[in-house]
Design brief:
Largest sheet: 8 strands, parallel, barrel
Helix content: 25-40%
Structural class: alpha/beta
Strand order of the largest sheet: 1-2-5-11-12-13-14-17
CATH architecture of one domain: Sandwich
Strand content: 15-25%
Low-confidence stretches: none
CATH class of one domain: Mainly Beta
CATH superfamily of one domain: Golgi alpha-mannosidase II
Distance between the termini: 49 Å
Shape: globular
Bound molecules: alpha-D-glucopyranose
Mean pLDDT: 96
Number of helices: 22
Length: 647
C-alpha cells in the first residue's frame, strides 16, 4: 500500500516538468489533484503488477495525465471545475439518458444537432452514442470490434465533428457518452496487426498460447458468450501461430491487462476521448478484463483495480469525465462495480442495474412481485455516491439473470423460471402478449436469451384489439415508471419512446443475418416520429407518456440517486412498493404488475410518513375507501408523495 511518501514527491516533480509553461493557478490545480489521487493510483497498480513495476508505471501515467491536462480545452477545464463543485451531477432527478446509433438516429455526427430539439422534448440530458470509433471492415459486432480508437467511422464523420457535437450538446445541457471497449480490439487493430507480423512487444498485448494446453485448462470453467456464432473462447491464428483469447467473436482479441503497457495505452485512450469532450465513458465488457485459471474469468477483483487506476488518472487530468461499468452480471456480483470494500468510491460512478431490468420483465410475465421483492431486497448496499443506470432494455439481448438462491427463497426453481421467461418473451408461451426473438439458445446450459424492443416485449407491437393495446401501453408506461422511479439515470433505448416494434428487416444488412439483436436497434423514420405530436397515435401516446414521466421526475427531489430505494414486504403480491426516504420527504412508488385491480392499504403510506398521499404522476390525491384501501388499476404506476411536499 502506498501512502504518498517519496513516490508522491517524485510524481509531483515529474508532473511539474510535464506541465510546462501553464499558469501558476493551472499548475496548482493539477498538482493538488495529483496529491489527492496518487494513493488511489499506486494502490490500484500494486494490486495488478509487481511493486517496482507499479511505481514506474504510476509515474508514467502521471506524466501522461499532466500532458493531457495541458492540452485540455479551457472550456473543458471549466467544466471540470463545475463538476467538482457539483459532485452529484449524475444523481440529480433531472438526469435522463437516451441511447442510439448515430446513423440510425440522425444519419451522421454533423446532422445529429438537428435532433437535439427532439431529445429536449423528451427531457434528455445524457446521450449515449453507440460505438462510432473506427471498427474493422465487415462484421464488427455493432462497432465493438475497434480498429482505431483515435479516428471515427468515416461515414459518421471526423474527430472534429465529434468535438463540435460534444460542444453543441453541452451547450444544451446534454452530456455525451461513448463506449470505451477495453476488453478487446479488432484483429485488424494496429496492436493485433503488429503481433501478427511477429513483433514480440505486441504479442504480449494479447493472451496467445502455442498449443491447446492452457486454452483447454481455461475452457474447463469458461462460459460461452456467443455459443451460436462464436463457440469457444480461443481462436487459432495462423499468422500468430498460436491460439489467441477471443471471448466474443473470433475477430475480437482480448487484450492482456496483466501487461502494464496495456494499461498505459488505455489510459491514453481515456485521456484522448475525455479531451474531445466525452463526459461519460462506458467501460464495455469490463467484467471480462482479468483472467484467472479455474474461474469464469469474469468479475475478478483485479477488474476493479483496473478501473481504479484509470479513474485516478482521469481524476487528475479531466475530473468532468465519469465512468460507467458495463457489467451485465448476476445480482450478487453487480454492486461491486459501484465500489465495495477497498474499492468504495474509487471505481465507476455508474453501473447498469441489470437485475432491476430482468425483474421488471419477470414481474410482468408472472403478474406478481414475489421474486422481485426478494431479489431486489437481497442486493448488498451500494455506496451513496454510486449511481445506477436503470433501463428496460438496451441494444443487447436480455439474459435471464435470476439467481437460484433468490428463486429458491420464494419457492421457485431458478432454471424453470428462466425457462418460463424465455418462452414467455419469445412468444411461445400460451396466451403470452410478447413477440421477442430467441438469441443464442444454448442446449447445454438451457440458456435462451431474448431480443426485442420494449413494445414487442410488452405486447404493444402485436396488440390484436383496443383493449389489448391499452393494456400493452400501460405495461410500457409501467416498466418505464419503475425505472424512472428507482433513482439513478434512466436510459431510454432509441425507438422505445415511439413504441417501435422489432424491425422486420433486421437480417437484411450484410453481417447482421446471424445476430437478431439488430431487431431491436431500429432506424428512426422521422415520418413515424412526427406522429408523436398526435396523441391519438401509438407513437404519440408512448412519447407523451415517457416525456411526462421525465417532467414529473424532475420535480421530485426524492428521486435523487443518493437515496436508497427500499422494497416493502407484506404488500399484495401484484404490487411492488418502493419506498424512498429523503430529507425532502418520503416517496412511495406503487406498481401494479398484474392485469387486475389490486389493493394497497393507505396505512402503509401513513406509516412511511406520507400523511396526505398525493399521486404525482396524475396530480391527484390518492382516493381511499372506508376499508382504508386504495385500489390500483391493472398495470397502474403511482408515485406517491405527501401533499405537503408535492411540487
Ligand atoms: C458488450 C456490448 C455488446 C458486445 C460486447 C462485446 O456487452 O454491449 O453489444 O457484443 O460487449 O464487445
Amino acid at each position: 500500500m502506498s501512502t504518498g511518501g517519496p513516490g508522491l514527491l517524485t510524481a509531483l516533480d515529474r508532473a511539474g516538468a510535464a506541465l510546462g509553461d501553464l499558469s501558476e493557478e493551472l499548475r496548482e490545480t493539477f498538482l493538488l489533484r495529483l496529491e489527492r489521487w496518487w494513493d488511489d493510483l499506486v494502490d490500484a497498480l500494486e494490486a495488478l503488477y509487481a511493486a517496482d513495476e507499479a511505481q514506474r508505471l504510476a509515474l508514467q501515467l502521471v506524466e501522461h495525465a499532466a500532458r493531457a491536462y495541458c492540452d485540455r480545452d479551457p472550456e473543458l477545464r471549466r467544466l471540470d471545475e463545475r463538476r467538482v463543485l457539483r459532485p452529484d451531477w449524475l444523481q440529480r432527478p433531472d438526469m435522463l439518458g437516451y441511447a442510439c446509433y448515430t446513423d440510425r438516429f440522425a444519419g451522421d455526427l454533423r446532422r445529429l444537432p438537428e435532433r437535439i430539439g427532439y431529445l429536449e422534448e423528451l427531457g434528455v440530458s445524457y446521450l449515449h452514442l453507440m460505438p462510432l470509433l473506427t471498427p474493422r471492415d465487415g462484421d464488427n459486432d455493432g462497432g465493438y470490434a475497434v480498429q482505431d480508437y483515435r479516428t471515427i467511422r468515416p461515414d459518421l464523420g471526423t474527430v472534429e465533428d465529434l468535438r463540435d457535437l460534444a460542444r453543441e450538446l453541452r451547450a444544451h445541457g446534454i452530456s455525451l457518452v461513448l463506449d470505451l471497449v477495453l476488453n478487446h480490439v479488432a484483429r485488424e487493430h494496429e496492436w493485433a496487426a503488429r503481433a501478427r507480423a511477429g513483433e514480440r512487444r505486441y504479442r504480449g498485448y494479447f493472451h496467445v498460447f502455442a498449443d491447446r494446453q492452457m486454452p483447454d485448462a481455461y475452457e474447463a470453467t469458461l462460459p460461452e458468450v456467443f455459443p451460436d456464432f462464436a463457440p469457444g473462447n480461443f481462436t487459432w491464428d495462423a499468422e500468430l501461430s498460436g491460439w489467441v483469447w477471443t471471448t466474443f467473436n473470433a475477430w475480437q482479441w482480448d487484450v492482456n491487462w496483466a501487461n502494464p503497457e496495456v494499461m498505459l495505452e488505455y489510459a491514453d485512450v481515456v485521456l484522448h476521448l475525455a479531451n474531445l469532450g466525452v463526459e461519460v465513458l462506458r467501460l464495455d465488457a469490463i467484467a471480462f478484463t482479468w483472467k484467472r485459471l479455474g474461474t469464469s474469468c469474469q468479475n475478478q477483483p483485479e477488474v476493479h483495480a483496473v478501473t481504479q487506476a484509470l479513474r485516478a488518472v482521469a481524476r487528475m487530468a479531466c475530473p468532468a469525465t465519469a465512468f460507467k461499468a458495463e457489467a451485465i452480471v448476476g445480482p450478487r456480483d453487480l454492486v461491486q462495480y459501484l465500489g465495495q470494500g477497498r474499492y468504495a468510491g474509487r471505481v465507476s460512478e455508474l453501473a447498469y442495474h441489470n437485475s432491476l431490468m430482468v425483474q421488471v420483465w419477470s414481474m410482468l410475465a408472472a403478474g406478481n412481485v414475489v421474486l422481485a421483492r426478494q431479489a431486489l431486497s437481497a442486493l448488498p448496499p451500494r455506496p451513496t455516491t454510486g449511481t445506477w443506470i436503470t433501463y428496460v432494455r438496451c441494444h443487447d439481448d436480455i439474459g435471464w439473470a435470476i439467481d437460484d438462491d433468490d428463486a429458491r427463497a420464494v419457492g421457485l426453481d431458478g432454471f424453470a423460471h428462466r425457462r418460463f421467461l424465455s418462452t414467455w418473451y419469445s412468444g411461445e408461451f400460451p396466451d403470452t402478449w410478447a413477440s421477442g426473438l430467441v438469441f443464442q439458445a444454448n442446449p447445454i446450459t438451457g440458456d435462451r436469451r431474448i431480443s426485442g424492443t420494449c413494445a414487442s416485449l410488452a405486447g404493444l407491437a402485436d396488440a390484436p384489439d383496443t383493449l389489448a393495446e391499452e393494456r400493452a401501453l400501460a405495461r410500457v408506461f409501467l416498466a418505464h415508471a419503475v425505472i424512472f422511479g428507482w433513482g439513478g439515470i434512466p436510459v431510454i433505448w432509441s425507438g422505445d419512446e415511439l413504441g417501435l416494434p422489432n424491425d422486420p428487416g433486421w437480417a437484411d444488412e450484410p453481417g447482421h443475418e446471424d445476430d437478431n439483436r439488430w431487431a431491436h436497434r431500429p432506424r428512426i423514420a422521422w415520418s413515424t416520429a412526427a406522429r408523436r405530436r398526435d396523441l391519438r397515435t401509438r407513437e404519440g401516446k408512448v412519447f407523451h407518456g415517457l416525456a411526462h414521466l421525465a417532467k414529473v421526475r424532475r420535480t421530485l427531489p426524492q428521486l435523487h440517486a443518493s437515496a436508497e430505494p427500499v422494497v416493502l414486504e407484506g404488500t399484495d403480491d401484484g404490487v411492488l412498493a418502493v419506498l424512498r426516504r429523503h430529507p425532502s420527504g418520503p416517496m412511495m412508488g406503487l406498481y401494479n404488475v398484474s392485469g387486475s385491480w389490486r389493493p394497497f392499504p393507505v396505512q402503509r403510506l401513513h406509516a412511511a410518513g406520507i400523511a396526505a398521499p398525493h399521486e404525482a404522476l396524475s396530480g391527484h390525491a390518492v382516493v381511499t375507501g372506508d376499508d382504508g384501501l386504495a385500489f390500483l388499476a391493472p398495470y397502474a404506476a403511482w408515485w406517491v408523495v405527501d401533499a405537503g411536499s408535492a411540487g
